[in-house]
């Protein structure tokens, strides 16, 4: 079986916290079972030097990406999400659709879908050192989960997502709204 990996895919801008990603990678790198972290993305709003990760032996910068469908996930991977603030991130929805385990900070609308039972949820804090340790704790939980536990967690999340956000449900709700206006 292939080793477990983390996939981080986002804009390499301050809002998405590549600085926290680097600190997480450095914290994990001292462990003999440190997961590899594949980083996909490019800078949009800020300038970013990919040499920023040079001191992180467990980080591989993979370049830009065009949605999660362009990333070759394995059944051993988890999607790692770091962000200072957000609504309901589209990238989280894409990861759910791909049925990938998710490790994410609880910011903005993330908790609408991600819970302790469906993902590896990192409690938000303003203390960056504590935030890094919380990420490491959740990453270690992911690393220790059996394949069956991961599958169950992902299925619970996908079920919750399907009930709340699937396109057919959205289309039905929009149709119901428009039908009210057309009855008059």
From TrEMBL:
<protein>
    <submittedName>
        <fullName>Glycosyltransferase</fullName>
    </submittedName>
</protein>
<dbReference type="Pfam" id="PF13692">
    <property type="entry name" value="Glyco_trans_1_4"/>
</dbReference>
């Amino acid at each position: 079986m292939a080793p477990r990996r983390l996939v981080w895919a986002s804009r390499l801008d301050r809002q998405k916290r590549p600085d926290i990603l680097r600190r997480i990678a450095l914290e994990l790198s001292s462990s003999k079972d440190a997961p590899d972290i594949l980083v996909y993305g490019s800078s949009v709003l800020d300038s970013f030097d990919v040499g920023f990760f040079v001191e992180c032996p467990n980080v591989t910068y993979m370049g830009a990406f065009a949605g999660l469908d362009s990333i070759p996930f394995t059944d051993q991977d988890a999607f790692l999400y770091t962000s200072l603030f957000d609504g309901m991130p589209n990238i989280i929805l894409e990861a759910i659709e791909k049925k990938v385990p998710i490790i994410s900070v609880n910011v903005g609308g993330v908790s609408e879908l991600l819970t302790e039972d469906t993902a590896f949820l990192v409690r938000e804090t303003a203390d960056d050192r504590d935030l890094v340790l919380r990420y490491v704790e959740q990453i270690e939980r992911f690393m220790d989960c059996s394949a069956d536990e991961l599958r169950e967690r992902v299925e619970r999340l996908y079920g919750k997502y399907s009930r709340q956000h699937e396109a057919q449900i959205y289309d039905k709700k929009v149709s119901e709204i428009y039908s009210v206006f057309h009855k008059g």
